[in-house]
Amino acid sequence: MAAAWGITEAQFIEYNPSVGADCSGFVTGAEYCLEVNNGQPTTTIPTTTPNPTTTTTPAPSPTQDGLTKDCTSYYKVVANDNCPKIVSKYGAFTLEQFLSWNPGLGVDCSSIWVGYYVCVGIPGTPTTSITSTTTTTTPTGPSPTQDGIIASCTKYYKAVSGDTCPGIVLKNGNTFTEQQLKAWNPALGEDCSGIWASYFYCVAVPGTPTTPITTTVTTTTSTPTGPSPTQDGIIASCTKYYKAVSGDTCPGIVTKNGNTFTEQQLKTWNPALGSDCSGIWAGYHYCVAIPGTPTTPITTVTATTTTSSGPSPTQTGIIKTCTKYYKAVSGDSCEGIATKHKTFTTAQFISWNPDVGSTCNTLLVGYFYCIAIPGTPTTPLPTSTIKTTTTVVVGPSPTHSPIASNCNKYYQIKSGDTCEKIQTSQKVTAANLGKWNPFIDSKCTNIWVGYWICVGVKA
């Protein structure tokens, strides 16, 4: 190619050093210098100068693909430059204009190359540049913000302690990429180490989608039909999700979803929870089933007694010194079991079988429970000693407490249920639903998947 233009190969490499001594850096479609104008300035702008030095026509080299042909001013990209930062340096044009003059940069400015010239002016572009390096915001934007935030921002996010770039992308619905977040907020830095708690960051510009995008630079994975938001690393084969609420714990999530999986499985499917389960975020969805997960409660205890003849299944935490067991049947309650055997109190029964809960709301039909330990009387206790104020629940389990004692029709909560949906499907009024299930709060936020509620009573 050099010979075709009347210059030597050595001259071509001298005029275009980016191609390298062996021409291995030659890029098809790129523009290259074939003649030197000795009057053309070759110095780059100092990164500390508030008014950047520009180069006017004729065009310098190298330039990036697609540069607008009517460009009158050029800027040589330096290390750590990005599109918003260059726009901020000049202050005479918008990011949209800059990208239209330099389409080779890409819509997210991911193709900017150090040492290449970009267009920073066309006929009619103002020549006034920014003279201040202090933090700037759009007239309607919140504060404080960091330097260089994009001027066309339409939505902001206030950072909190512990935030990361992938986390901010997740919290804002995956409607933009991590690279776009950094481009709109250049002070974050390439390693995203510049996040300051309580500062506002741009999370949308004109044209940003309102629904999750299909490609992202975060490591979050989910099934195509999975809900959002989710945390990093959620298992890809998930078939069922649970939306966490304030106050949730790992054992609580297991219980709310019918005890069909273990706490360890929950952490494996959702590694962002952490080994101590401190990573639960209210409003985020977590995997609670994969192919093969049971639909009925599982046994999570491998050794429940000191003898080898202990029955199963049992719940976690049953006392190890148990000497006698009872298999729960439909209609049982903690008080009812204590009354039936008359040799221990309701409180003792709960202490020997702690997984039933302090209000006995997780008593499972078909499971074995401890009803005696060494020293338990063999003769009946006084009735007044056994009875407590515990409500006897007749019907399937688990149920919430309290529930109508004359209930004769039950409904098991499913994922996605609301009080309105239940009222429609079960043909029950809001007043009766609340009357028969007084534990339900005014916003219907405390119905748990897998639990039974009353939807009909005896006349």
Automatic annotation (TrEMBL):
<dbReference type="GO" id="GO:0008061">
    <property type="term" value="F:chitin binding"/>
</dbReference>
<dbReference type="InterPro" id="IPR018392">
    <property type="entry name" value="LysM"/>
</dbReference>
<feature type="compositionally biased region" description="Low complexity">
    <location>
        <begin position="41"/>
        <end position="58"/>
    </location>
</feature>
<feature type="domain" description="LysM">
    <location>
        <begin position="73"/>
        <end position="120"/>
    </location>
</feature>
<dbReference type="InterPro" id="IPR052210">
    <property type="entry name" value="LysM1-like"/>
</dbReference>
<feature type="domain" description="LysM">
    <location>
        <begin position="324"/>
        <end position="371"/>
    </location>
</feature>
<keyword id="KW-0147">Chitin-binding</keyword>
<dbReference type="Pfam" id="PF01476">
    <property type="entry name" value="LysM"/>
</dbReference>
<protein>
    <recommendedName>
        <fullName>LysM domain-containing protein</fullName>
    </recommendedName>
</protein>
<feature type="region of interest" description="Disordered">
    <location>
        <begin position="41"/>
        <end position="65"/>
    </location>
</feature>
<feature type="domain" description="LysM">
    <location>
        <begin position="240"/>
        <end position="288"/>
    </location>
</feature>
<feature type="domain" description="LysM">
    <location>
        <begin position="409"/>
        <end position="455"/>
    </location>
</feature>
<feature type="domain" description="LysM">
    <location>
        <begin position="155"/>
        <end position="203"/>
    </location>
</feature>
<keyword id="KW-0843">Virulence</keyword>
<dbReference type="InterPro" id="IPR036779">
    <property type="entry name" value="LysM_dom_sf"/>
</dbReference>
